[in-house]
Records
---
Amino acid sequence: MRRKRINKTIFVLLTVILAFSLLSCGNKTANTDNPTKTVTVQLSVTYPQESGKANLESYSMNVQQGATVLQVLEAYCGQNGIDVSVDAKDSYVTGINQVQASSNTGWVYEINGEGIMKGADKQTVKNGDSIVWRVVSL
């Protein structure tokens, strides 16, 4: 009699454990409340002629929505093994692909043909933006 009671108790416990296991597996759903959204941008880099570097012409890439111009540049350079130098104090780009700014030149960017006065670490990009980096005389 006692053996039947133990078997019945074990059966009930296993049934309860199985039921909870099935219920918890059934409730797992993909997190669609906050999926990562991306935007597509075009990136170009125009090097000074004397650098001997080939320009990057309109490279299309997907980046996370809310990415900054600096993050776009760093992502491209990181994916392609290209050095990018950034002044840690003010996030100013001082060099791309070993082409360094000098005392009378500097790296600047424009978006959709317009010069932007915001730092590259503060300017976010939108879907379809075209970003061009180039060296200018100061």
Note: The CA atoms of residues 78 and 84 lie 9 Å apart.
---
Amino acid sequence: MLESGAVLKQRGWDGFRIVFVGTGDAQPLLKKRCQELGLDHRVEFKGFVAWEDVIALYRNAHVFVLPSFNEGMSALLEAMASGLPVIVTDGGGTKELVSEKNGLVVLWAVPDALASALAFLLESPERMRRMGQNSQRIAMQFDWEHFTRRHVALFSRVLEDSSGVQV
């Protein structure tokens, strides 16, 4: 992500900000790399963030980026439910939730690709708004009520097919 920020900066994008949420072993290295790239004033490391505060971060964001090799889908679904357009790499099942309707899928560890995807979204607030609305619609298909209805329908079909009895 930091390397992509440096590419954006080189391409003349000036008003962006990168916010890292969470902690991990790589944080000291990321902070050092941030300084090396001259991005100190554009990057914020939030560390651990309480759930209530995460919601506010989503509300203040313009784009959610998950440039991970293998990451779970919970943060992605949260961001989508918050109405954000998303950029992900093809790992951990994230690709199945993202299409050209709600975001972009880029190659992992290719800073130019991520920077280009960010620029593509940032240059059109209308595109970001439309993709964010689509993200929200897609994420709502993964709520508990929706899952429950789908599972009951599936179990009913299985029982009916196996016994001839309708539930």
Note: The longest strand covers residues 43-47.
---
Amino acid sequence: MNKVITIEAFGDNYFYLLDCGAGSAVAIDCGDCSGIIKAVKAHDLQLEAVLITHHHYDHSAGAKKLKKKTGCSVISPDSKRIPGTDRVISGGDALEFANETIRVIATPGHTATSVCYYIEPRDGEPPMLFTGDTMFIGGCGRISECSAETMYKSLTSLAELPEDTLVYPGHDYTDENWRFAKLFDPDTEPPSTPSTISYEKQSNIFLRSDEPEIKEISSKPNASADEVFRELRARKDKF
């Protein structure tokens, strides 16, 4: 099997099943557990845990049922809002599953407790990043519980990861993000899932908020990157 199995749900959601070696696996996000259970059975894997990126129902609602059906543990950043959580994690934590080390990156912005999961490179394989609703291919999530400055800081922290890092987002919004980006850069072209940090730095309009040609869209002279990002996100909300 591929190391990462992408599981589609609800029209545009992505959940993932990661083969950790030695017959074990972890899932990333679980708004609905049926697709994950089918993938686990199809590949004869033991599901050790489901890692939740944030509390929104389309990423977490199926976790408790998945635990009941498979015996896996639920690992999340928010036990108050994610039922069934067995272990609460935060930025800087490291999780070990068979051959994989998974590092937790705190990325507040979309929600106050959003996290991303970063998989260390191993045996010549590139690192991987599961971004939930923080970073999409060519875009970013809506800001619902934090400031634009906080979201922008989280995005730019992800951009500091190795450029060959594979980016696995929580939704397929690529076409919409591409059409929005072309308003500012007609040469923008979207990749398929997964993207890479290198490509996002070149094409993701929200990561380019400090570039002079992108700053020209701002209504404020000499706007900061934070201010440009805030305006871009507000315009995307109405796109």
Note: DSSP finds eight helices and 14 strands in the chain.
